[in-house]
């Protein structure tokens, strides 16, 4: 079928205006509006791509800095989170916009650009993973604290950079949600008069009395700022507590020194402060005489006024656990939680 095209008579200008107004106005206006719409959408797309390129450049610069300097593990985690969120947001936005074009305007979405964004996301995430200690870091499905478990007081598995994955006892009833139990004394069935290796690795059972272990405790408190809560229950049922807004210990080379212990509040008395900046001692390492005298490992020095790893006793005449002048304790818990 041949199209019948009406010939325009341009000999008279007024006739031309009349013919154009009669036949072209609606078509031309619609076409111009559509072209204007396409231009705006194209500008928006280019703006998004430019923003994406800037984000990639900034992340690449930060990644280079991380390669050349030592950073805490949580900085790598923050970078990974930033990369993932930014790429996901851009990809989703582009996909939504251009699928709309495809459905409504018969315009092919730029799948190549989307694919490039996805590839860059994978590439940079891989580089960040491999930059941890020169070794490949595999993203763990477990959180690094008890905070995500909310009001649940059960055993859960967490993953802490440097220490790997392990089970902990979360406590949401004693002082609110999100606490990791690092020490529990409830029945005296576990012997706490142990050597250095035992305290380094931890001992006991999460179902009863236990100590989490100095090595795990070091990496946990190194990963992010932590606070400490000491819960003490006396034979008469009365409970008291000591809370410290800052708590951390150093590594084994530094004898798990109590390097942070500040911002005390509570009803039990500030009897741990005398152990600040003191290394941990057991019956075979560091201040051996004190560990033997008090029957357990602790941050002992000449001025120590507490020891929650001593014998579980019910007699004031025996040397057992103590917190200041309080020597008979029915229940002891030490809890830590990321500082808000």
What does this structure look like?
The structure is a single chain. The chain is of the alpha+beta class and 340 residues long. It folds into two domains: 13-130; 147-338, Gamma Fibrinogen, Chain A, domain 1. It has helices spanning 13-23, 25-68, 73-105, 111-130, 196-201, 214-223, 288-293, and strands at 155-160, 164-171, 179-185, 203-204, 210-211, 226-233, 239-249, 258-266, 306-307, 322-323, 331-338. The strands form two sheets. Strands 1, 2, 3, 4, 5, 6, 7, 8 and 11 form a nine-stranded antiparallel beta sheet that branches. Strands 9-10 form a two-stranded antiparallel sheet. β7 and β8 form a beta hairpin. The longest helix has 44 residues, at 25-68. The N and C termini lie far apart (77 Å).
CATH C-level category of the largest domain: Alpha Beta
What is the average of the pLDDT values?
A: 80
Supply the helix-strand structural class: alpha+beta
Figure out the total of helices: 7
What's the count of strands?
Answer: 11
Helix content: 25-40%
Largest sheet: 9 strands, antiparallel
Corresponding CATH architecture of the largest domain: Alpha-Beta Complex
Please trace the helix and strand order, writing H or E for each element: HHHHEEEHEEHEEEHEEE
Calculate the terminal CA-CA distance, rounded to whole Å: 77 Å
Oligomeric state: single chain
Count of discrete structural domains:
2
Cα shape: elongated
Search tags:
single chain; 340 residues; alpha+beta; Gamma Fibrinogen, Chain A, domain 1; 2 domains; 9-stranded antiparallel sheet; two-stranded antiparallel sheet; 7 helices; 11 strands; disordered N terminus
């Amino acid at each position: 079928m041949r199209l019948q095209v009406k010939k325009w008579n341009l000999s008279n200008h007024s006739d031309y205006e009349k013919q154009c107004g009669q036949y072209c106005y609606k078509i031309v206006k619609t076409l111009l509006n559509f072209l204007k719409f396409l231009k705006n959408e194209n500008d928006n797309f280019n703006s998004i791509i430019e923003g994406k390129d800037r984000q990639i450049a900034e992340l690449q610069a930060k990644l280079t800095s991380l390669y050349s300097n030592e950073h805490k593990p949580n900085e790598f985690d923050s970078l990974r989170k930033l990369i993932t969120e930014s790429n996901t947001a851009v990809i989703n936005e582009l996909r939504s916009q251009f699928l709309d074009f495809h459905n409504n305007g018969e315009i092919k979405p730029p799948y190549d650009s989307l694919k490039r964004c996805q590839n860059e996301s994978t590439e940079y995430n891989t580089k960040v993973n491999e930059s941890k200690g020169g070794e490949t870091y595999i993203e763990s499905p477990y959180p690094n604290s008890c905070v995500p478990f909310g009001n649940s007081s059960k055993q859960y598995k967490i993953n802490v950079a440097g220490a790997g994955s392990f089970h902990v006892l979360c406590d949401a009833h004693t002082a609110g949600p999100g606490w990791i139990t690092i020490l529990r004394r409830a029945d005296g069935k576990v012997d706490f008069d142990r050597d250095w290796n035992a305290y380094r690795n931890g001992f006991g059972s999460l179902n009863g009395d236990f100590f989490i272990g100095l090595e795990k405790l070091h990496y946990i408190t190194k990963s992010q700022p932590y606070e400490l809560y000491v819960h003490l229950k006396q034979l008469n049922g009365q409970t008291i507590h000591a809370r410290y807004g800052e708590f951390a210990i150093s590594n084994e080379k530094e004898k798990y020194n109590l390097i942070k212990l500040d911002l005390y509040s509570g009803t039990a008395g500030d009897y741990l402060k005398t152990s600040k900046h003191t290394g941990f001692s057991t019956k075979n390492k560091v201040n051996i005489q004190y560990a033997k005298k008090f029957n357990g490992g602790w941050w002992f020095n000449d001025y120590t006024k507490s020891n929650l790893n001593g014998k579980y006793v019910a007699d004031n005449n025996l040397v057992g656990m103590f917190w200041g002048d309080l020597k008979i304790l029915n229940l002891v818990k030490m809890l830590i939680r990321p500082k808000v």
